[in-house]
Amino acid sequence: MSRMKYETKKILKWFIIINIANAMIAAIIGQIQTEYLIKKINKNTNKNNQ
Description:
Number of helices: 1
Strand content: under 5%
Helix content: over 70%
Radius of gyration: 22 Å
Oligomer: single chain
Distance between the termini: 74 Å
Structural class: mainly alpha
Largest sheet: none
């Protein structure tokens, strides 16, 4: 019984760690995409104004 509890705790710990890592990666990718889009929009705006 205690072995099962230990395994479950270990799995939960890794599950939480992986979820946090995924959230951080998603945030970084989102940030990069946002910056790329802003640059693209700025380029298009500059072309239209000239």
